[in-house]
Description:
The chain is of the alpha/beta class.
Amino acid sequence: xxxxxxxxxxxxxxxxxAALFVAGFGLFGSTAAVADEVSITIKTxxxxxxxxxTKQPFSGERPAVDVAxxxxxxxxxxxxxxxxxxxxxxxxxxxxKAKREGKTPLLRVSVFEYGNTxxxxxxxxxxxxxxxxxxLDKVSEALFALSTSGGDEYCGEVISEAVKRLDWNxxxxxxxxxxxAGNEPFTQGSVDYKKACRRAIDHGIIVNTIHCGxxxxxxxxxxxxxxxxxxxxxxxxNQDEQVVHIKCPQDKIIIELNTExxxxxxxxxxxxxxxSYATNQLAQDSNAYGSGGLSSRAATxxxxxxxxxxxxxxxxxxxxxxxxxxxxxxKFPEEMQSLSPEQRMEKIESMxxxxxxxxxxxxxxxxxxxxxxxxxxxxxxxxxxxATFGDAFSETVQxxxxxxxxEIGN
Length: 410
């Protein structure tokens, strides 16, 4: 695959932006909930598996999107992991553009690593890092914890394990896809890649392959054949291509709004869980900032894809009000425990209104930011033919979502 990417090199003023987002991050008094502490009803439609060749109308309250990312973490893949970390929130925003019958999908993401000799040989040097989850902070945390070592890369085995282990949704015409990235021949290991890819598509799961290296080398190594067997797309990238983030005038206000947005989260559950969710939200803001992607992360948090049902009172209230009414007093944020039930609902509704206002401002600032980036790229004379992990992902997702019945907006 060849594509042109305009690059404009700017460095973000680290001290200035750090002061902006760190200053308002203190929400450690509120916290998050464990999903099993109170039953939450998340409505996405049927759980029944359907024949992937039969197109049926969407019947759920939210369309379902499940994506498993399988990353080679052998010694040569440091660049790939860095790209995945840096471009996570840009990738998520591609899904934020998708709707079905006006409804934004419920996005769940899983991460596997493979080819790392620090992993047990008896398990094929494979590790399920994150089960399919709508907790995007958990996905970010997992990516930033990855390191490389080794090794032997068994593509057929990791695809087979992803198909078998994950609780893929059964929504008719949902989008279910595996994205596997690596650089060694697709044929390695004891599990036949042909059988693994056929099994995936038999379950309605597309397999997209991303070869880190030369296009023809990937074809010779059967990465293209693997994708074709599972109705996916074959791509190649330069995993060592530097990801460039363009500094925008809107970054300052976006980061300030992100700080205000964090203050609207009412994390609930056991005390240690409340603290862990609040802490992790800030930690992933910090990770995104360090990799140059905080504005993209903040923009994602302004969309309905960033949701914390079962952890945050506001998101949970919008999904299932009855769950809040059943919540034990000591599972509420500490500052809400002495309030009456009526006062708690007033607090949640107030925060919901405040969050909506901030999200609207964030979305507008991000539209201006994206327009600025497009203009800067158009002016740039610097081009690269080398695609990155995020480029490959974005190029593929929109077309496949449309084929699955989604409408794609801006």
